[in-house]
Design a protein that fits this description.
Elements lengths: L1 H4 L5 H7 L1 H9 L3 E2 L2 E2 L8 H7 L2 E6 L1 H18 L3 E5 H4 L10 E7 L5 H10 L6 E6 L5 H5 L2 E4 L12 H20 L4 H12 L1 H9 L2 H8 L7 E6 L2 H17 L2 E6 L17 E5 L5 H13 L4 E5 L11 E5 L8 H21 L17
Parallel strand pairs: 3-4, 3-5, 5-6, 6-7, 8-9, 8-10, 10-11, 11-12
Antiparallel strand pairs: 1-2
Helix pairs in contact: 3-9, 3-11, 5-9, 5-13, 9-10, 11-15, 12-15, 13-15
The structure holds 6-O-phosphono-alpha-D-glucopyranose.
Keywords: Aminotransferase, Cytoplasm, Glutamine amidotransferase, Repeat, Transferase
Function: Catalyzes the first step in hexosamine metabolism, converting fructose-6P into glucosamine-6P using glutamine as a nitrogen source.
EC number: 2.6.1.16
Length: 369
Amino acid sequence: DAAERGNYRHYMQKEIHEQASAVARTLADRIENGVALDTAFGENAAAVLDKTKGVHIIACGTSYHAGLVARYWIEQLCRIPCSVEIASEYRYRSPVVPDGTLFISISQSGETADTLAALREAKVSGYVSTLTICNAPESSMVRESELAMMTNAGPEIGVASTKAFTTQLAALALLTICLARRAGLEERQERALVAQLAELPGLIEQTLLMDKSIEVLAEKFVDKHHALFLGRGVQNAVAMEGALKLKEISYIHAEAYAAGELKHGPLALVDEDMPVIAVAPDDQLLEKLKSNLQEVRARGGELFVFADPRVHFGENDGIHTMRMPALIQDFQAPILYTIPLQLLAYHVAVLKGTDVDQPRNLAKSVTVE
Ligand code: G6P
């Protein structure tokens, strides 16, 4: 056990720090001469992608959050409808499947009972095909799905998923590019998107340099009972993943909200005991987010903002800004902004002395309903 963990105290810590190489492995052999290969998704993927006019993504937990990020990418870049749903709900309703819809299951283990049941249901529901994005090559979902793409993250032992998530996002970015090509993405644009992906391993390493300062920051969370995570647009899904990480391993009640929705409820909870964590890349929603954050400050909430280096929030007592590397929005920002939130959850859990790799009441793979 100690040998496998190497110099790391926990598997989760090791897996967080392995993300650059894991993402590099996800991308390896799936890109050729600067363009993405359809065959990444299986031998017959090209014919299926040609017919795809919409996408249904089904998953649980962290994998569901990867799907939520992908929805922004697919709808923006491919201009086809994409819905994302948790498997335990999807399997018990009667979803309408429009012609030409591709079913996608996302799963680290490939064995999650609800996702597997949803996949089985999908195979008789008139989808164009079924595709699984998965980290376990021998798993039930990979065997039963018509198309599959391995994330190649390597074994993930920590119950709280980290490298599985960022590699799922890399896989979904490749899928977005392959679908976008069919929607008229020009080769020049494709090359620019692929180049963004190729930069990821280096940017992940750069982001991981925040580790020490986040360890210090974590001290401010140890005595808290609640935390609020805010993002807008695609970063709302990143905020959801950050909140999930914190609650899973530090047992602090954490909730994510789309920042624009604050005024419709959660603002009532904000006071000096409620830390508010925000993810603030330099995107088109930044000014909106800034005014949402002012609403938090005005209620005495302490703000922790992970921000683009070019963005200023007016440093004062109640605002702590942590500088991220400068990133390109499309694919890079959601993948990279996840990392400090993983580190924060990890360090808070260590300070609280919880069982980081085996949090109470949770299982790595939930194979029963
Ligand atoms: C469990 C794990 C989570 C994981 C979820 C979905 O709840 O604790 O970390 O995200 O299952 O698992 P899957 O293997 O389908 O991605």
